[in-house]
Every structure is written in C-alpha cells, then in structure tokens.
Structure to design on (158 residues):
C-alpha cells in the first residue's frame, strides 16, 4: 500500500527489489515520513548497494538493506542443476550484502557478505534524520508543491 507504519522508533516503511528503482514509489514513501526504510533484496550486490545508499540520501532516512544467503545445496532437489554447479553444494548463489545506511548515504554498518547470521546494530541517533532533512527534504521544502501535485491512490479495486 506504499504506507509507512508508526512504531516506537518512528515511521518505518519498505520496498522490495526493483521497486527501489521506481521514482514514484520512492516519493510515496518519502512523503510518508519514513525514519527507517527496510530495503529487501535477494542479494545486495554492488548496484543494489548503490540503490540503497541513494534511497537513504534521497529520503534522508536510515536504510536497512537485507540480502539473502543461498548456497547450491539450498536449491530444491527436483531442480536440474547446470554441470558447473552439481559438484559444488557449498557455492554461494546469493551472497548477502546486508547493511545499514545512514541518512547521509554513508554506511552505518558495512555490507556483510558471504556469511549468514543475525546482524544486530544500534542506530542510536535517530535525530540524524531531522538534521539531514534540513539540507535536503524531497517531500518537504524541495518538493515544489507550487509546481507539482503528487497523490497516491490507496483505495484498491478488487
């Protein structure tokens, strides 16, 4: 529904995969006032790190980019594997890349590649969102409401 949820930490929103390349989807969530954005990717490789960092900078919010780890052994046994993978059950097909990005677009927690597990990080300064928004606010003082109209139609036809 392109809505952010109110939480004790502030408004949290999220997009999956290629939705991060859709300018209007990003703008809808920026206008929702996200303080934290969850960016879900199959694998957060370099280009998707770029998209996640851009989202943080553009939206002036923290971005938690989450990527999966998947080895050849995790594929369903019914799937016919290409010859180069048959004897490599430990080979990683998806390498993770999970990270946390600050509202200025720089890493708060560098990407974690090639290993699974739980990543815990304390984002202790959520007021940074407000400080960063003083320089760029694409849903506020830079949105040019005198020139542009933007609306999200939340009612869906079923």
């Amino acid at each position: 529904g392109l809505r952010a949820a109110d939480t004790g930490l502030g408004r949290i929103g999220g997009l999956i995969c290629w939705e991060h390349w859709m300018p209007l989807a990003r703008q809808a969530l920026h206008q929702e006032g996200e303080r934290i954005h969850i960016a879900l990717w199959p694998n957060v490789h370099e280009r998707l790190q770029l998209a996640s960092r851009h989202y943080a900078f553009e939206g002036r919010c923290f971005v938690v980019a989450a990527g999966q780890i998947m080895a050849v052994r995790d594929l369903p046994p019914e799937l016919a594997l290409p010859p180069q993978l048959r004897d490599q059950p430990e080979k990683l097909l998806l390498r993770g890349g999970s990270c946390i990005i600050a509202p200025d677009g720089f890493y708060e927690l560098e990407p974690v590649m090639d290993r699974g597990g739980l990543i815990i990080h304390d984002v202790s300064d959520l007021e940074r969102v407000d400080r960063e928004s003083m320089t760029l606010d694409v849903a506020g003082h830079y949105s040019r409401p005198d020139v542009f109209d933007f609306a999200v139609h939340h009612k869906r036809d079923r």
